[in-house]
Amino acid sequence: MENLRVRIGLAALLLMLTSVTTHADERANAENILHTLDYLSVDYAGAVANGQVINAREYAEQWEFTQRVAKQVALIAPRPEQAALREKAQTLVSAVQAYNAADTVAKLSNELAVGLIEEFAIPIAPRTLPDLAGAPALYVEYCAQCHGASGAGDGPQAAHLTPPPANLRDAARQQQHSLYSLYSTLTRGVDGTGMVAFTQLTDAQRWALAFYISHFSMSPEQVQRGEQVMESATLNKLIADMAGITGTTPAALRAAQGDDGVALLAYLRTHPEALMRNVSSALDVSLTKLRASAAESRAGRKTQAYDAAVASYLQGYELVETQLRLVAPELAEQIEEKMAEYREYLGGERPVYDQVDARAQELEALLEKASAQLGSGSMTPLMGAFSAFILLLREGVEAILVLSAIMAFLVKTERRESLRYVHAGWISALALGVVTWIVATQLFTVSGANREFTEGMTALLAAVMLVYMGYWLHSNANIQRWKEFIHSKLQGKSLWTLVFMSFLAVYREVFETILFFETLWLQMPEQHRELLYGIAAAVLLLATIAWGMFRFSLRLPLRQFFNVNAVLLFILAVIFTGKGIAALQEAGTFRIHPVSFPRIDVLGVFPNLEVLGAQAVLLLLAGLWLASDRIKANKPKA
Description:
This protein has 638 residues and is mostly helical. The chain contains 25 helices and 2 strands.
């Protein structure tokens, strides 16, 4: 039995890793396509004008790029929702073949690029603020020899290169480049030119260089005007997050908002920290995704509308939910409830688009209100510390209770030497959680939905094992039966089961907790010391809880010890079940059917049929087990 449980756990982890690897390969292909599309949208203007080829060599190269894009798009796994990508690629091929205008080709290239970014959740922004202070030195060391000290493409090596280095001061050309495209060029290089891939630089250094290079085509007047635009309550919402800075071209903003849009982008490219000072930036992401969801719904794309609604919660609101609950708990509760209702409505059979818009507008008003609450100065240093304290306490207390119960069990049954197995479990969970975070932030992006899916499945698997352990402890409460079990069965496989249980209890929350703290850290740059105080206080309290439970358990008589810990583990299984199903609902895996019932987050109680139904089944199962044991205990001995 123990071997079966370990196999099930390993199979689940292997399936998750295989799925991630396959998706990562497709994302790498999509990133190659984006790199090609960038050069097609910029350089095509030098090949065709007024419906005629003006440079045969350049056109041949652009036609080759176009065909390469079509072939790479065709390699994408044939799923129904990706048919639009292949259609856009073919439209682009037809446009280049017909010598369409450069603006048309650039527009089609951009539409295909946006589709790829959305479909594969391609990370187009750095995870942390770029260090622009060191960028000038990097430019001198790696770029100035070719592009020149002023970026004009007149460096000492320029005369020896064919084609010559790009003039980074050419505003007309550079307005077609996003920061992501500059970063991609630094990362991959350009075939057939002197532009090599700077793989010797770190990811952060390449992002810093991309930001710095972009300033050559800006004027000081643009940057100064951009600062004024940033203060405007209306226009400062044009760019909601870091991806807005790095994924938007000046040409696109000029078409949407004129010179003010370009000026705002110029300012944020030189002062990206101005965006991150706004604590409500995560809510801006939530608003952007919500509006995209309503737009997809109006266009009749039900799946995309639902996915955008899920992203609105997971990639935006969830990251500031803890802070909002501190300053406006009723508003936080209302937003979460309305978001769940909105997702459920979109997932229905026939959503009415007018009602979708009405629900989206209601949510927009609530998110704007939350943004005002968080941006009004309500988050004091003390609240920042308390936010960090509550976050770690909330995520850690359940794992601490599980670990304490297992460790007390081993000590109570005179198997203290086996504690190393438990320590191996939770330490490996911490290590793997950190590795998961590094991989997800540096190598590829784990979307909010995938994060919640992983957490939900891990929680449900942990709940199954907790139920089994609780029943096992209760059924072995008889002293004589326990002594027989200890001497005959608690060997290697059983101990490795404890390792797996310890691992699940901790890994379930590590990755998401790190992401939440990363968000707090970025959003509260002036309060890092207070955040560390909050973390330290939570660690101290968790250690105290663990020690108290451990000591209390050891003082109980053996039969009471088993029964008390069996009840505790079963309660934790009910909590894990509720939180696991809720996480899968947030990921869009399960539907939500709300009911009138109190919400108790700490107990994993959420007012919907799916959660309450699963927890009711567990409670019924516990009742049947207890009744069965009583019948057996009262049965006359032969």
